[in-house]
């Protein structure tokens, strides 16, 4: 978990597994004091409710989420998202809380010699510079896409985040709406994520996750999406679509959802909904290609779900 914490001298950072923090320390982007934290019993593992809901401790590793058979049966989109994230080595150490609270992957932010909005600078150098892998939905001054794969999946599942200071934060409340270019999330300076709660799954729902990447293995996604649906009597009774890699925060694809709700689960309706996935997009000069990727990923997800 990389939320900032205040010490008596200067801002510090929480360190759990440190998979992202260690890289930033090596590069010189993060130089302040560290506050090591250990997992309390209620912050690790999966805690199931009688209604089939589950609470995931923030210290639960991505590998544990990816490998849990019960979780995969109840929340296949969450398990598949965890399985597709990073490499086995990273998944073995990285935590759910850390994935949600990680910092921007933008190469300007990661360069210790370049000032940017995320580091208190005056502007976003990626906007007028190299933004090949950046947003296709331009929501605010910073054009770096949010890096959390788990956040997009949790958005699709209407998850709630618990911290040591607040409860029942939505993913939108945790990460903001993308219009604040100076921060990666809305955590308070000394606030720490404790757990994530998933409501009980719907009867007969299916869910899938897919990503488009620029090489075969271990690449940050250009576009990723998680889809949930209930198809009954050949009709979409329920649809949730959430995407990452396209905006400063994960986005619900509301127009695509609306295009399918109550409609026959046929190829024509799915193709029409996939076209609606890009509604509201404002690509940068170098990111228009992401719109075609998004439509393709959404169409593939929906076709597979509807089979």
Automatic annotation (TrEMBL):
Q: Which InterPro entries match?
A: CO_DH_flav_C (IPR005107), CO_DH_flav_C_dom_sf (IPR036683), Diverse_Substr_Oxidored (IPR051312), FAD-bd_PCMH (IPR016166), FAD-bd_PCMH-like_sf (IPR036318), FAD-bd_PCMH_sub2 (IPR016169), Mopterin_DH_FAD-bd (IPR002346)
Note the Pfam families from the entry. Answer: CO_deh_flav_C (PF03450), FAD_binding_5 (PF00941)
> According to the UniProt record, where is the region Disordered?
1-27
Q: Where is the composition biased (Polar residues)?
A: 1-11
One GO term in the molecular function aspect is: FAD binding
Q: Which residues form a coiled coil?
A: none
The source's domain of life comes to Bacteria
Domain FAD-binding PCMH-type: residue ranges: 1-203
Q: What's this protein's name?
A: Molybdopterin dehydrogenase
Gene source species: Bradyrhizobium retamae
Phylogenetic classification of the source organism: Bacteria, Pseudomonadati, Pseudomonadota, Alphaproteobacteria, Hyphomicrobiales
